[in-house]
Amino acid sequence: MIRVFLIFILIFLIKNAFANKYITIASTTSTHDTGLLEYINKEFEKKYKTKVRALSLGTGQAIKVAMDGNVEILLVHHKQSELEFMNKGYGALRYDLMYNDFVLIGPKKDKNKCSSIEDKMIEIKKSKLLFISRGDESGTHKKERELWELSNINIPFKENWYLSVGQGMGSTLLIANQKNAYTLSDRSTWIAFNKKENLQIVCENLPPLFNQYGIILVSKKINNKLNIEEAKKYIDWITSEEAKKLINNYRVNGKQLFFFNYN
User: CA quadruple 5, 32, 79, 141: dihedral positive or negative?
Assistant: First the structure.
């Protein structure tokens, strides 16, 4: 019932966007929950007098919405899925835009040093420590699956200690905090998240945790009603020096969340 309601709202927003010549971006919960997207979109709207509608979705859902021709722009963070999207002809162009990293979160009682992400994942499995998975096909969920595979562990779907919740990052962190459990988060959402008194970062600053965000212009071939002209302006602007300064200067709790690396 909730999914049907959300789809109805999505269709309403999209139709209204077409009617008013808005552009619509399907992006991740991390850019939305941290406030970054609202912050930078306001600057674009002031400069170009074009409204921007943003849909906050997991990467998998955002890509599906774009494949259906319902948005002009994708801003997501799973490069393999993005390149598949491009190779199948759904995207007109794609750029690396910015990055941060993932962090493995766990209970404060965990005092074991994290020498490698693989060792920590193996420790979680062997000790059957409670792990909360987003389970929503988001970029973070896809990264989590990659980490299990990197550790030569079959994804433990049927294990009692592995809880797949099908929720966004904020809700997943909330559950992990309540249950003193492990989970994977993007660093930006972790910094912005407030209810984490039982949690800490247990693994960070390791190469497998790199988190690249890509920006994609959806192909007009999918839907000729897409406002590609204004969307191109947005792409040109968000990859400019002006937007670079906005992204790099954006702070939550005094900390930089995203790092511009357009190429």
Answer: negative
